[in-house]
Amino acid sequence: MKLKKRIFVTSGDSGIGKSIVKKLTDEGYKVVFTYRSKKSYALEIANDINQKGGCCLCFYCDVRHHESLNNLCSSLIKSHGAPYGIINNSGMKNDKLLINTEFKDWQEIIDTNLNGPFYAIRSLLPSMINVGDGCVITISSVSALRGNVG
Fold this sequence. Notes:
Elements: E1 6-9, H1 15-26, E2 30-35, H2 39-51, E3 55-60, H3 66-80, E4 85-88, H4 103-131, E5 135-138
Parallel strand pairs: 1-2, 1-4, 2-3, 4-5
């Protein structure tokens, strides 16, 4: 299988992110994905893909922390070149009523769902522009269209 371009996926260790990683590698893309807390799952996914002839790397990264994400992206660009695409998949929710939501919980949601994609795009887009090609996909929740009670 001739491998296609490299795609960077945030939170590829479970759920939708895991499915995205598997589909992309099945289609021949080289994938780099991040995980925040499920190292064993992430390594298992990457190893399984690589054993089947795909090309997949996984790295710990908390998208809420700009420095961590920027350092990872800089290292990846230096060692592998600019990615063709970014898929911002990291997300979280808080099922509490707004009146019961603590400031720290609110900040964690904003840092993950809003700032995280900005940090990833800001870290990788300049290299993609230099190459002159690529795409950015940011995944959102149905809550972006219709809020929950509270």
